[in-house]
Design goal:
mainly alpha, Growth Hormone, Chain: A, 18 helices
Length: 408
């Protein structure tokens, strides 16, 4: 009961952050539904569409550490509300697109920039602040789980509208969902009025000092490099799985069912890894996720897809999906403090987004050049196994403590 009472003042913040994250990630993860109908209607190629997704991930990654630093000075609320409005605008541009320019600007740059202020890094940075330290990992897992629910809503709505009214109607449906992010972001912005709970010496560092400390920490560097694999594997699936299933002659509804299954099991996985991160080594768990994901990819793509196998694969990948977020966020807070967590998480996230570019655009190039996705998934499996084992190995070795805070 004491723990519930401790959470009560921060509940509106946690609910707002969860809803914002749920819709931001759910819509973004469902954009692959539009790959085939949009490219066929506008005369674009698969790699053209995936170039926009690649640009989205580059913009998201480059702006994420800047947004984290700006939040310390400007507050989270103006950035999150502005990001939500920009998300809706990007979808409007995509829904009215007649060619490559609008697809790049709307689906690429605008949505990518908006995710820097509405995605997992910001939502979890907000969620980490109003909760006691002992509950932080579990709460981060719960908020990450909420980020999965959006796919359960967005994917079926989008696919249903595409099949009944066309792809533009599907995107207008996504615009309506994105508008709900505005009040959610406003409510989550109440966090700006809260002081840091038990600030540490690390919270007294400047932005540049905090960055130098992190980049001198070998475990942070390895975690950031391994994060590349996370982005590559997940964005490859969200972008190309619908196309892969269509090529294999599967029912188009299976794509939405698979994305929905990923979202459903993502809830369970995020809750589990949030709980587990409070009990076991967060980075060993993180490495285990990368290894298990890679083995699941190897199993699925070495067999012809069936409905049952696709849904089982989606369930496995969903369980291992956003569980990385509470582990990465929790470890950064534990190691470097709360104040610059959003910025340092954003620095690591740059690597994640470079991987996302390879997963989206690289996968499209491989398909356009070779006529299949074989080389793409094989590369993803190999790199994933290597990154996961490296992540575990660096933790099992001698882990140095971060340098002490600089004097003012």
């Amino acid at each position: 009961m004491n723990r519930l009472q401790a959470l009560r003042p921060g509940l509106p913040i946690l609910i707002g952050a969860s809803l914002m994250l749920s819709l931001a990630m759910g819509i973004r993860q469902s954009l692959g539904i539009f790959l085939q109908p949009l490219t066929q209607a506008t005369g674009l190629s698969v790699s053209d569409f995936t170039l926009a997704i690649a640009l989205q991930n580059v913009a998201w990654g480059v702006l994420q550490p800047l947004a984290g630093a700006w939040a310390v000075r400007l507050g989270f609320r103006p950035l999150m509300v502005g990001g939500a409005a920009l998300y809706a605008l990007g979808l409007v541009l995509l829904a009215t697109a007649q060619g490559m320019g609008a697809v790049l600007l709307g689906g690429g740059l605008a949505i990518g920039a908006s995710l820097a202020a509405t995605g997992s890094a910001f939502a979890l940075a907000v969620a980490a602040r109003p909760v006691p330290t002992a509950m932080r990992s579990t709460v981060l897992g719960i908020v990450s789980a909420a980020g999965s629910v959006g796919a359960l809503i967005a994917a079926p709505i989008g696919q249903g509208l595409v099949m009944s009214l066309g792809w533009r109607a599907g995107l207008w449906g996504f615009v309506a969902l994105a508008l709900v992010m505005l009040p959610a972001a406003w409510m989550a912005g109440r966090v700006d009025a809260l002081p840091l709970l038990k600030p540490t010496a690390a919270d007294e560092r400047s932005a540049s000092e905090a960055l130098v400390v992190a980049l001198r920490h070998p475990v942070f560097v390895v975690m950031a490099v391994a994060y590349f694999v996370c982005g590559m594997q997940l964005v490859f699936l969200t972008t190309h799985l619908p196309s892969y299933l269509a090529i294999c002659g599967m029912d188009p509804l299976l794509s939405a069912q698979a994305l929905g299954t990923i979202g459903a099991f993502n809830v369970l996985g995020s809750l589990f890894f949030g709980w587990a991160g409070g009990r076991w080594n967060k980075l060993v768990l993180l490495g285990g996720i990368y290894v298990l994901r890679s083995l699941a990819l190897l199993w699925y793509f070495t067999h012809l897809p069936t409905v049952g196998a696709t849904l089982v694969f989606a369930a496995i990948m969903g369980f291992l999906w956003l569980g990385v977020a509470p582990l990465v966020t929790g470890w950064i807070v534990d190691t470097f403090g709360l104040r610059w967590q959003a910025m340092l998480g954003g620095v690591a996230f740059v690597s994640h987004q470079l991987g996302s570019v390879i997963g989206a655009f690289g996968g499209g190039l491989v398909y356009d050049r070779l006529g299949s996705y074989n080389a793409a998934w094989q590369f993803g499996v190999s790199l994933g196994l290597a990154a996961g084992l490296l992540q575990i190995a660096i933790v099992w070795g001698r882990v140095p403590k971060p340098p002490p805070a600089f004097s003012a």
